Amino acid sequence: MNIILLSGGSGKRLWPLSNDVRSKQFIKLFKDNDGNYESMVQRVYRQITEIDPDAKVTIATSKSQASAIHNQLGGKVSICVEPCRRDTFPAILLAASYLHDELGVSEDEGVAVCPVDPYVDNSYYEYVRKMEMVVKQGTANLTLMGIEPTYPSEKYGYIIPTTDHEISPVKEFKEKPDTEAAKDYLRQNALWNAGVFAFQLGYLLDKAHSMVEFTDYRDLYSKYETLTKISFDYAVVEKESSIQVMRYSGSWKDVGTWNMMAEVMADDVKGRAVMDDTCENTQIINELNIPILAMGCRDMVIAASGDGILVSDKERSGYMKPLVEKISTDVMYAEKSWGTYTVIDAEPGSMTVKVSIRAGEHMSYHSHDYREEVWTVVSGNGIATVDGMEQRLRTGDVITIAAGCKHMVEAETDLDIIEVQIGEAISADDKKKFDWKI
Amino acid sequence: MNIILLSGGSGKRLWPLSNDVRSKQFIKLFKDNDGNYESMVQRVYRQITEIDPDAKVTIATSKSQASAIHNQLGGKVSICVEPCRRDTFPAILLAASYLHDELGVSEDEGVAVCPVDPYVDNSYYEYVRKMEMVVKQGTANLTLMGIEPTYPSEKYGYIIPTTDHEISPVKEFKEKPDTEAAKDYLRQNALWNAGVFAFQLGYLLDKAHSMVEFTDYRDLYSKYETLTKISFDYAVVEKESSIQVMRYSGSWKDVGTWNMMAEVMADDVKGRAVMDDTCENTQIINELNIPILAMGCRDMVIAASGDGILVSDKERSGYMKPLVEKISTDVMYAEKSWGTYTVIDAEPGSMTVKVSIRAGEHMSYHSHDYREEVWTVVSGNGIATVDGMEQRLRTGDVITIAAGCKHMVEAETDLDIIEVQIGEAISADDKKKFDWKI
């Protein structure tokens, strides 16, 4: 089957484990069949390939997430990177033309689009496959998944079907309602809109060509910036008359808040933490290398990372967004395509960073105008290039890199470097990239 | 007046702000008259000198606390350092002979001994002065302070007086009782034993000479290690027949647990932290440079330092000692006579430390057998000495110090250094000290 996974939104609702460069889908709180920790994106990929080992999985995402996806899934998936953010219609359109023009998917094949972040079991992806099969029968242009509601929620949009059959034409869509309206919808057999659609690839490409002038994927990519920001729901779904919904009553959980995430995470404690025996219904995730001691905590979630520490009543955790925005905090941890980058000390005029590079990987060849750097290798071997000169690096070696000097390092083994940055204007924006080995 | 302050016990009951090298009396959670944060030891010193600007204050303490005391009080107090730990009788004896032989206090002067850690107002030290005056009248060899109990506590020892007068002979002492026994003591006008004694200096020296063979302070210091470990209560107080108690009914709080400390700290939040408006009766102390967000917390204390993070129900916080002992943690932060030492990263084979040295101060001249160090100056100026060679240090300078190499640094301005230690056996014990400038 062909699946486009939408991996969007850097979010603050799972702060401090999600931030501007690290989305919730990359936090490793679940476990795979061997008991190893895995992230949402790893879990989803695993689930899809358990259902269909030959599935063509394409992740539609932004530049900022491409490294993390590569890090977590390696070369196993296609990544369709948006050159800039333009809402879901342009993103799905770009991914669809990528499937057609780059992966050779033919116009009569079915394609499903799913968000990457619901917590489900494998039966969900069985159902997505079923949707793709239904799509090929051509009974409707667009097939949606409708989640059988478990309560009259105010958090989701609703789909009102014309019948209560498993597959039914759609009567109308409803925005997030209040509880009374939601109760009324439930009496009409309404379903939650989970943002899952399936269609024949040709349908979407025709639709796209009627709305946007472009020749192929590369052309669309080059003019992506000029596209209007508009959601797929608004641009396509709500305007389509040949549309049906398939009723799904299997497992489905929205883990967008700590309250829900705490419920599904694999272990009550991840990382260095001790709970006394008076703690109840409490989960701790600790990414710091100092211990957490929790005593007498009830219905709480405690989460710590280089970005900060959350101590919250579970119920309240859903309201954190404005508070997190108030805590203006620099990003202290980032997952890169070559490894990780952790700020361990920040002062006016200096910043100390721990850089970990995986064996065989290398960072980009770059320079900084406004800071010098002192690298001390604390473990591993590698080769540094500084202004074109190669230099072997071993544990204990020190390199000083003046402002303006081009530099990079390739790791021969896993390589840890303590990097001290010194300068009055230290900023992630102070970076020029250069070609390497030309 | 002459006061000996006993500054003992490295404790775990205020973890993570107290640890093996940092006692609760050095945590800055109170405020002075100008609104600046102060520690318990600073507060006590300030209170005593507000009552009596000419007070001779001597702090009896261990080697491990001497640096922190010097750091916080500068040269204003005499510090009588025990060469090793030998319980309160030897400690008070050493301090008494120090007063006599080093500070020239005469034998007929009164001396009061107080623990450094109760939270009181100035009236308490007024009362201590009054005790010293009473002592000089010679009506008893030993005068104790008895705290008017506010409830039948199981946490304190009791003094049963013969009368209910302000000054009364002591009938007997009682160990920490159960609640029923405590109620019975209260009916007998009993008082809490606060560990405050006053005596004429000559009395104690006579007593001491009858029990220990020594000539003067220096002689006692040299044989300190041979003294028997015994408490002052057991060795002197409980054996003395000429003994009286003075009834104190002013403010007095034992801030040995977070529950009590949270009640008296100056601000509900110290450090980077945000509480939402559903938090109730909650205090946060954050010494880390990442923010804490607390939501929906009730009756809790949250404390974070380089050693760890505590999230506790206040009532439960009194039971933390065994749990903290379970979290075997290396000391990540230490206050030195010359500044501070903060571990910012620790891995097998390496440790990264931020060393901050105050202007004018210097560390000891020393070497390590099993590690090399790379120092990068991130701010300030100083002079390093490496194997006898002096070298000026400025921001951005890097020094590599091989294993076995003697080194030290003097700060000309406040000086911050990132020190990367590399070696298979990094340990605080791997340190040889040398004389400098001989």
Short description:
The structure is a homodimer of 438-residue chains. Chain A is of the alpha+beta class and 438 residues long. Chain A has a 6-stranded antiparallel beta sheet. A 5-stranded mixed beta barrel of chain A has the order 8-11-9-10-12.
* Biggest sheet, spatial arrangement of strands of chain A: 20-21-22-29-24-27
Biggest beta-sheet profile of chain A: 6 strands, antiparallel
Average pLDDT, all residues of chain A = 92
Whole-number radius of gyration of chain A? Answer: 24 Å
Strand content of chain A: 35-45%
> How would you name the oligomeric state of the polypeptide chains in this document?
homodimer
- The coarse overall form of chain A would be globular
- Helices of chain A, by number, come to 10
Structural class of chain A: alpha+beta
SS elements, strand count of chain A: 30
- Biggest interface and residues each: A-B, 60 and 60 residues
Distance between the termini of chain A: 40 Å
- Helix content range of chain A: 10-25%
Uncertain ranges of chain A:
none
Please explain how this structure is put together.
The model of chain A has no long low-confidence stretch (mean pLDDT 92). Chain A starts with a strand and ends with a strand. Chain A has helices at 40-51, 63-73, 88-101, 122-136, 179-187, 201-211, 217-222, 232-235, 258-264, 321-326, and strands at 2-7, 28-31, 37-39, 56-62, 78-82, 110-115, 118-119, 142-147, 158-161, 167-174, 191-200, 243-248, 253-254, 269-270, 273-275, 283-286, 292-295, 300-305, 308-313, 333-336, 339-347, 350-357, 365-367, 372-379, 382-386, 389-393, 398-401, 407-411, 415-422, 432-434. The first copy, chain A, is globular. With 438 residues, the first copy, chain A, is an alpha+beta fold. The first copy, chain A, has a six-stranded antiparallel sheet with strand order 20-21-22-29-24-27. The first copy, chain A, has a five-stranded mixed barrel with strand order 8-11-9-10-12. In chain A, strands 14-16-18-19 form a four-stranded mixed sheet, with helices on one face.
